[in-house]
Structure formats: structure tokens, C-alpha cells
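Researcher: I'd like a structural prediction for the single chain below. Treat it as a standalone chain; there are no partners to consider.
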Amino acid sequence: MSALRWRRFWLGLWIFGMLLGLYLSLRRGGDEMPPIPHLDKLIHATGYAILASLAVCLFEKPGPRWRALLWVVVLGGLIEVAQGLLPTGRMMEAADFAANTLGAVIGAALFWRRNALMAVERVLSKG
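Model: Treating it as a single chain, here is the predicted structure.
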């Protein structure tokens, strides 16, 4: 398989996504109840699915890939612990961590064998 041409861009996007998730998860307030029950869990799962998808596409060798995926799951856990410890008005929830982990597993499974970033690069380079 050929290497990603825009690897630094994709890596920057992955890091930006993690930092954005960290900011949104630890900022003050924002703990209002969603208008649809459990919508927050779907948002958690979607965000971590995107992070895990980027991770498995960025790191193709098994060792780095597993470490990146593990980091995404650990990050979700650390954020939940931080929400419980920091005075942000947010609460640590096991259900949020479960949604994070489930999203990461789904995102990784979707792109484990097919690198979506290479497909995006191919399409964009044709235009």
C-alpha cells in the first residue's frame, strides 16, 4: 500500500480533533440535558469513531495502529476522570466512557482494512 501524501495534514487533523474533544469535554457548563434522550451518547460515539478512523488510517503498521487506537480509548477515559475531578460543573459518567469506547471500536472496524484517507487523497488529486 502506498503512503499517504498528506500525512502531516491528516495527523494535524487527528491531533486537532483530540484537542477539540478535550476542550469541549472540559469547558465549564455545557451539561444541559439533550432535547433527545441519550443524544449525548450518540455524539460521544460519533466523535470517537472519527478519531479512531483517522488513527487506523494514519498508522498502518500493527504496533503503531494498536497504540494509536488504545490512546483514543484511554483519552476518553482520562477525560471522564477529569470531568469528575475538575470544578467544571460536569460529571464523570461510565456510560459516556462506554459510548466513547464503542464509537472507537466501530470507527476502527470500519476502516481497518480500507484506508479512507488514501481514497480521499485519490479523489482530490484527480480534480
